[in-house]
């Protein structure tokens, strides 16, 4: 099971979208940044999706401080491609920040890449 934590201003919306994707092997939980840092560092979570107005500030500050900048990446207001996210995951990134006005577009891209990187079997039947 791959555990994704959501945090920041849009954490509830991000968690809802992750759940709606219906990907097998993906568990999602809302978190604060400190709790997420502890969970990620201990291996009890695999990925963190943080949102704020810019996608680069408050959504990642604590996580960069605790986990280091190599484990964190911000898309800001950009919408990434799944292969970009997959490359970041392969490089060890597990914390992603993005702007709250991009939640609907960015969340599915990141989650599908995470599911693929962690071997989640795919979509559940409706």
From TrEMBL:
Protein name from the UniProt record: DUF2620 family protein
Superkingdom field: Bacteria
Native source species: Streptomyces morookaense (Streptoverticillium morookaense)
One protein family per Pfam: DUF2620
Top-level taxonomy: Bacteria, Bacillati, Actinomycetota, Actinomycetes, Kitasatosporales
């Amino acid at each position: 099971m791959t555990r994704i934590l959501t945090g920041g201003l849009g954490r509830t919306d991000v968690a809802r979208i992750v759940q709606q994707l219906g990907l097998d092997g993906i568990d999602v939980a809302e978190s604060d940044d400190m709790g997420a840092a502890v969970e990620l560092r201990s291996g009890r979570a695999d990925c963190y999706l943080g949102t704020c107005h810019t996608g680069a500030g408050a959504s990642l500050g604590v996580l960069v401080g605790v986990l280091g900048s190599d484990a964190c990446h911000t898309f800001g207001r950009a919408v990434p491609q799944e292969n970009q996210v997959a490359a970041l995951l392969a490089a060890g990134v597990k914390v992603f920040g993005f702007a709250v006005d991009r939640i609907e577009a960015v969340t599915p891209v990141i989650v599908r890449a995470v599911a693929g990187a962690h071997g989640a079997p795919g979509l559940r039947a409706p």
